[in-house]
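Researcher: Sequence recovery benchmark, item below. Answer with residues only.
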């Protein structure tokens, strides 16, 4: 009988809110841009609800569509929990964000994965020099092992 013995998640999707002042290193287009062979990003146009901030989406697959992101959101479990793999994904997300935006280690990345509904636009404007991590998604992979039947 096959039994799952280990599960781990692999980071696939990152959604952040970025102060416009920190966007000098990326292409300002509303289409997917390749960062490297592994990661691509898309910057949303400015939005009146959060001035001076832009939403940036970072994905592992180049050819992802909006429907695919919705499927990712519906079929993954790596949001808002605190197991070891999720913390690893947060650290990896912060590393990818800093690489793409060419940020120094002194620019804070706030974890807004939990309780973002209680944050206000005013608070967002006050913290305008901080990158806000809004969503991360990872695929969960399981490894199976054959177990012998009990005697």
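Model:
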């Amino acid at each position: 009988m096959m039994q799952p013995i280990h599960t781990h998640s692999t980071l696939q999707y990152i959604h952040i809110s970025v102060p416009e002042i920190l966007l000098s290193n990326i292409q300002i287009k509303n289409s997917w841009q390749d960062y490297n062979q592994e990661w691509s990003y898309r910057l949303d146009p400015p939005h009146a609800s959060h001035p001076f901030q832009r939403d940036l989406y970072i994905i592992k697959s180049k050819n992802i569509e909006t429907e695919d992101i919705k499927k990712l959101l519906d079929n993954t479990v790596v949001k808002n929990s605190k197991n070891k793999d999720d913390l690893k994904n947060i650290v990896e997300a912060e590393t990818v964000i800093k690489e793409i935006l060419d940020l120094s280690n002194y620019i804070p990345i706030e974890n807004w994965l939990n309780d973002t509904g209680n944050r206000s636009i005013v608070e967002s404007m006050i913290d305008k020099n901080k990158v806000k991590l809004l969503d991360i998604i990872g695929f969960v992979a399981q490894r199976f092992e054959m177990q012998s039947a009990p005697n």
